[in-house]
Automatic annotation (TrEMBL):
The protein's name in its UniProt record: DUF4865 family protein
Pfam families from the UniProt entry: DUF4865
InterPro entries: DUF4865
């Protein structure tokens, strides 16, 4: 498995309706993508759900890393570059995936869990997998995964929720504009 996220900061006066239309038009093109567990088209809109700025982002969880690489090298990613420039991409190694009972996501939460070189990584992983298991038992959880960011030596938890974004919940909250989920539906 392979996970990644890239983001595009947008001007404060940017028409976020354009982003919503982009997600609704392009999202369905991902619904049958081979090797993809899910792609979340996410955003922060200034003044909505407590967001301070406008941002458009995509979070991917791939079952097949070669499919992820293929996307980055083909015309689909060229459309991203042509529209927004070439973004920095955060890449992570998934460690745990739990599927919940909620059918459709309205929010995505990203938690960053740094740890130092002396941390008991085996214990840390076991504790965070237990936390994933607790999160997935919540009625609003679509899915939750834990990944290792090897560049920063931190864990990343991504939770998809059927509830609207809540800025008081753990992690950074994003609104899900579209969720392509070919690997979650299998």
């Amino acid at each position: 498995m392979f996970a990644k996220q890239y983001s595009h900061r947008l001007p404060a006066n940017y028409d976020m309706g354009l982003i919503r239309r982009r997600a609704s038009e392009l999202g369905p093109l991902w619904d049958d993508t081979q090797g993809l567990v899910f792609k979340a088209f996410i955003a922060e809109e200034r003044g909505v759900f407590g967001a301070q700025a406008n941002l458009y982002s995509s979070v991917y969880l791939w079952a097949d890393p070669s499919a992820a690489a293929g996307f980055l090298m083909d015309e689909r990613f060229q459309r991203v570059i042509d529209s927004f420039g070439r973004p920095d991409i955060e890449a992570w190694l998934p460690l745990d995936l739990q599927l919940g009972s909620a059918p459709q996501a309205r929010a995505l939460y990203r938690e960053t869990l740094p740890f130092d070189a002396q941390a008991d990584r085996v214990r840390l992983l076991a504790e965070e997998v237990e936390r994933n298991q607790a999160i997935v038992r919540q009625d609003d959880t679509v899915a939750v995964f834990l990944a290792l960011d090897t560049a920063a030596w931190q864990l990343i938890r991504i939770t998809l929720s059927s509830s609207e974004p809540d800025r008081h919940r753990a992690g950074k909250a994003y609104e899900v504009l579209y969720l392509a989920q070919p690997g979650l539906e299998q």
